[in-house]
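Input sequence (110 aa), recorded before submission:
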Amino acid sequence: MKTFLLGSTKRQVLEMIPECRIHKINLGDQVIALVRSQENFHAFQADCPHRGTSLLEGSLSSEHEVICPLHRYRFNLMTGEVKVGSCGNLEIYPTELTQEGLKVFISNDE
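Predicted structure, token format:
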């Protein structure tokens, strides 16, 4: 498991990542998507597992789901489970907000 640190303080992270928007985050040579809801962060693969459409252009539902802009497939942001559509689940990356910043954990298999 590889750990990436965003920001240098909790406050800095909360200021630099606005709520309820999908953010593009570069971690090494990988691009992921990140969503903030209050002090909760959800990191996930940036492309839909169905057709590879960028989820960075998707939308968010009030049920903590990301909605793919191509076919409107819906994925649970906490589990990655596909809720509407027929494809594989979304890859989710664990996060931890600390006083030192936001930690994002990426499997070495990525």
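Checked by second reader. The mean pLDDT is 95.
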